[in-house]
Input
Amino acid sequence: MSVRRPARLLAGVASRPLGSSVEPWPISAQLVREGSGNEAEWLQLLREHQRRFTEQLTQQHNCLDLITVKVPSYEQRRAAGR
Output
């Protein structure tokens, strides 16, 4: 793995959606500046990012599940004229 590869991997996610965490990015920039020999730190950073993203995705799926349950209920109430 080349020294620059992690920077290229993360370049595609540089524009993050509102509300997403920005904490790991200064660390990743520092790791890029340091060059090779920090693969363990990159792996740790990526694992933490993966954990946070999975947690956020789970929360969003839970919200979607709730909305999915509510929509038919409101549709039925509306059809019944309530």
